[in-house]
Amino acid sequence: MPHDHAHPHTHDHTHPHGPHRHDHNHDPAGPLHSHMADPDRAEAVSALAAQFIDGFRAAADKIAFLRLAGVPLEIPDGRDGPPLKLVDVSLTTEWQVGTASPSFGTRELSYLPFPGAMVAERTNMGFVYVSLDEKRVTDLRAFLAGHPAAQS
């Protein structure tokens, strides 16, 4: 497949197998790296998150679903202590009813409430890990952004 787009990473595109062959199975960017633009990647992660949440809700065996999806049941604490254990999966629903951004020359935000048709519902999932010393919530989108399914 020809390459006619810019690459943020450096590697030689001249291969001994000819100019139209490029397997994308090489370093330095890591195996099976993605060429999706950031907005495309964010949209892909959002679509995966929606499907993941639907699948989790429908799964008869929630632990089996999490294992199949590669969600760790325990994670390192990062300080050489005992690992944190997955104890809860939380679902939160929010509705975006407007937007606010910095205004020029003032500390007040510029606020734009949405008309009814633009109000958007968002559901997100969090994985709640605990140890005797700590509670940590890992966001589903952060998990999926690092997951191989979101890389291609």
Give structural attributes:
alpha+beta, four-stranded antiparallel β-sheet, extended, 27% strand, 152 residues, disordered N terminus
Can you walk me through this structure?
- Helix content is 23%, strand content 27%.
- It contains 3 helices and 6 strands, in the order H-H-E-E-E-E-E-E-H.
- The strands form 2 sheets. The protein has a 4-stranded antiparallel β-sheet.
- Mean pLDDT is 79; it is low at 1-36.
Percent range of helical residues: 10-25%
Report the span from N to C terminus: 16 Å
Shape call:
extended
The run of helices and strands is HHEEEEEEH
Average pLDDT number: 79
Number of strands: 6
Gyration radius, in Å? 21 Å
Sheet of most strands: 4 strands, antiparallel
Q: Count helical runs.
A: 3
Low-confidence stretches: 1-36
Q: Find the structural class using helix and strand composition.
A: alpha+beta
Report the sheet-strand fraction: 25-35%
Lateral strand order in the biggest sheet: 1-2-5-6
Quick synopsis:
23% of the residues lie in helices and 27% in strands. With 152 residues, the chain is an alpha+beta fold. The longest helix is centred in the first third of the chain and has 21 residues, at 38-58.
